[in-house]
Amino acid sequence: MTIMIKKSDFLAIPSEEYKGILSLRYQVFKQRLEWDLVVENNLESDEYDNSNAEYIHACDDTEKVSG
């Protein structure tokens, strides 16, 4: 399996990768660490997810966000 490290900004990130990042954040911060966060549809987002945001994330061969 190949892992690709990607950097995207808020306005250019593919929607499936963006959803993958928000889903991973939900799993880590809400489920695992049990932080008191408002989530919607098992996705965690906040005020920093805006046009100034940049994301560094890992994807596997199928483009699934893995980190």
TrEMBL record:
Reaction it catalyzes: a fatty acyl-[ACP] + S-adenosyl-L-methionine = an N-acyl-L-homoserine lactone + S-methyl-5'-thioadenosine + holo-[ACP] + H(+)
One Gene Ontology term from the biological process aspect of the record: quorum sensing
EC number: 2.3.1.184
Gene Ontology MF annotations: N-acyl homoserine lactone synthase activity
Protein name: Acyl-homoserine-lactone synthase
Keywords, alphabetical: Autoinducer synthesis, Quorum sensing, S-adenosyl-L-methionine, Transferase
PROSITE patterns assigned: AUTOINDUCER_SYNTH_1, AUTOINDUCER_SYNTH_2
Key word Transferase present: yes
Pfam families (UniProt xref): Autoind_synth (PF00765)
Protein origin, superkingdom: Bacteria
Family: Belongs to the autoinducer synthase family.
